[in-house]
Automatic annotation (TrEMBL):
Membrane topology, as annotated: Multi-pass membrane protein
Biological source species: Argiope bruennichi (Wasp spider)
Domain of life: Eukaryota
Annotated transmembrane regions: 128-147, 368-389
Protein name: Glutamate [NMDA] receptor subunit 1 like protein
Compartment annotation: Cell membrane
Length: 407
């Protein structure tokens, strides 16, 4: 059967999949899927008319009434012949459309803003972990207590010896206190080692800027979304929530149920060089995040889903096999990867030109030491306040005695 000469194609107005050079002429297209559509038209010798979804749902999903929206709905209703929109293959869509051969694997993950630098004064506690600090506090609190107990015991023994001498009793030979010597040596060695270790580690910490914690896995994200401490953004028509709700993992089901009912729209072009906002994450395509945001955002390596993308064609389309053959030839030749790189490279240049590049390891300056000087000044001020309070308390206590002497 001869391949059709003219096709209606549904597209999404989402960068970088489609880029419309002229808003009045939406057939003048570029972008990843736009370039793929042009090569398909050239190889299969057909002309096309590009149509956008009028309901604003872009990729489309099945709503509560069972109606499909977006470009999927356009294919399901036969309004277009096909859609090249980077759509993932799911079991549901086999009932409404024909599928071409898969041409790309799309990984789903989440992205967030980069963590902010930690305050400078925290440099004093960063050399050791929490457990090490607890061990140090316990040891240096416990050892003086032991010293106090042993010293009190020695004083009692010395008092007994003095009483024996007064009563002309034979004086006992005093045995050397081995425990005190061991503790003295242990304290001296520990204090010396801690000083050297702390000093060496704090110098290395000062030369590297430390940043706050960031959510790295979906398992960490799930309770934060459930408690509403974080909000999630999604592309319009993103159906990942339905997939996550059917997962065998409880934390993925939690994420799916939360983002299905509570999410904000994510428009990639609006967040090119802007932060997502405090306590916000975006769930979507890892490829999209890498192209759009690059190093300006934290992109998790924890994958929630791996979906194969395909071209959706209307039911009863005449030449699915031929279409798939040409599509696989294009992908096998590396053209689809080229389309991705063609869009990604200018974006990388824009991002790189806007970033201020600093060395990971820098020389020590006053800014790096400001936290230490701040703590030092606060210590001096506290000592001065305590001194004044002691002087005032001593004068207040001596006033009654002075009055008695005058009387």
């Amino acid at each position: 059967m001869e391949f059709p000469k003219h096709l209606k194609v549904a597209a999404v107005n989402v960068w970088p999949y489609y880029i419309f050079k002229d808003p009045k002429n939406i057939s003048d297209i570029s972008g990843i899927e736009g370039e793929l559509l042009k090569v398909l038209a050239e190889r299969l010798n057909f002309r096309y008319t590009v149509l956008l979804p009028t309901d604003g749902q872009q990729f489309g999903f099945k709503d509560a009434s069972g109606t499909w929206t977006g470009v999927k709905g356009m294919v399901a209703r036969g309004e277009v012949d096909l859609t090249v929109s980077h759509l993932g293959i799911t079991e549901e869509v086999f009932k409404i459309a024909e599928m071409s051969a898969p041409y790309y694997a799309d990984y789903k993950t989440f992205a967030s803003d980069l963590p902010r630098p930690l305050p400078k004064y925290t440099v004093l506690i960063r050399p050791f972990s929490v457990y090490v600090w607890i061990a140090i506090v316990v040891c240096f609190t416990l050892i003086p207590f032991i010293f106090h107990c042993l010293t009190a015991r020695r004083q009692r023994d010395f008092g007994n010896h003095s009483n024996e001498k007064e009563h002309d009793r034979p004086k006992k030979q005093k045995a050397p206190n081995t425990a005190m010597g061991i503790l003295d040596g242990f304290l001296l060695v520990s204090d010396t080692l801690l000083r050297f270790i702390y000093t060496s580690v704090i110098l290395s910490v000062l030369t590297v800027e430390r940043k706050g914690n960031v959510i790295r896995t979906a398992e960490e994200l799930a309770p934060l979304l459930k408690s509403r401490k974080y909000k999630c953004m999604l592309l319009k028509g993103n159906t990942i929530a339905n997939f996550l709700m059917g997962s065998n993992l409880e934390y993925l089901r939690t994420i799916g149920s939360v983002i299905k009912n509570y999410n904000d729209p994510y428009v990639p072009a609006e967040y090119q060089m802007k932060p997502f906002g405090d306590k916000r994450v975006v769930v979507g395509s890892k490829t999209l995040f890498q192209i759009m945001h690059g190093p300006t955002k934290f992109i998790s390596d924890d994958l929630m889903d791996v979906a194969s993308t395909a071209v959706f064609l209307k039911k009863g389309f005449c030449c699915v096999d031929r279409f798939s053959t040409v599509l696989l030839r294009i992908v096998s030749a590396g053209l689809y990867e080229k389309f991705i790189r063609d869009v990604a490279f200018p974006q990388e240049v824009r991002i790189s030109s806007s970033l201020v590049h600093t060395d990971a390891v820098t020389k020590l300056n006053m800014n790096a030491l400001s936290g230490i000087f701040f703590v030092l000044c606060m210590g001096y001020i506290s000592s001065l306040v305590l001194l004044l309070l002691e002087i005032a308390h001593d004068r207040w206590r001596r006033k009654p005695k002075i009055r008695k002497l005058k009387q």
